[in-house]
């Protein structure tokens, strides 16, 4: 049996086997590095995933199946886009009576005709109902009925 093995196990076969083993070790180490780096970029606990990746082949497969779908930078970009959309929507509002979307400078709701703002008698700008002076032309505007009166009493 030893003679048969010595005839089959030639120096060329030993060299080829050594090259294959070295390539597999390099791929194994690179897969661990890839898992750790990718997990870090996705904002997960990369060190735990690196430990999981130490299990040959199964660790990398488990990471590929369970990793977060987005990179951290993509997630941050999506959050910024959502915040931008919310900021753009903030310049719009809703009618208090019917909930219809109205712009900030509407005086009347186009749906239910509820008065949303008062008009300045001088410059005709839309005014918030709580304002007592027009900020555009400094014309005093009468307080709406039922508005609380502010007292400037000093002690």
Structure description:
The protein is 48% helix and 6% strand. With 155 residues, it is mostly helical. Among the domains are: 7-71, no CATH class; 91-127, no CATH class. The protein is built from five helices and four strands. A hairpin with a 6-residue loop joins strand 1 and strand 2 (101-103). The strands form two sheets. A two-stranded antiparallel ribbon has the order 1-2. It has a two-stranded antiparallel sheet with strand order 3-4. The protein starts with a helix and ends in a 28-residue tail after the last strand. It is rod-shaped, with a radius of gyration of 36 Å.
What's the N-to-C terminus distance?
112 Å
Strand order in the sheet with the most strands = 1-2
Structural class: mainly alpha
The overall pLDDT, averaged over residues, is 83
Largest sheet: 2 strands, antiparallel
Q: What does the radius of gyration come to?
A: 36 Å
Q: Low-confidence parts lasting 5 or more residues at pLDDT below 50?
A: 144-155
Percent strand: 5-15%
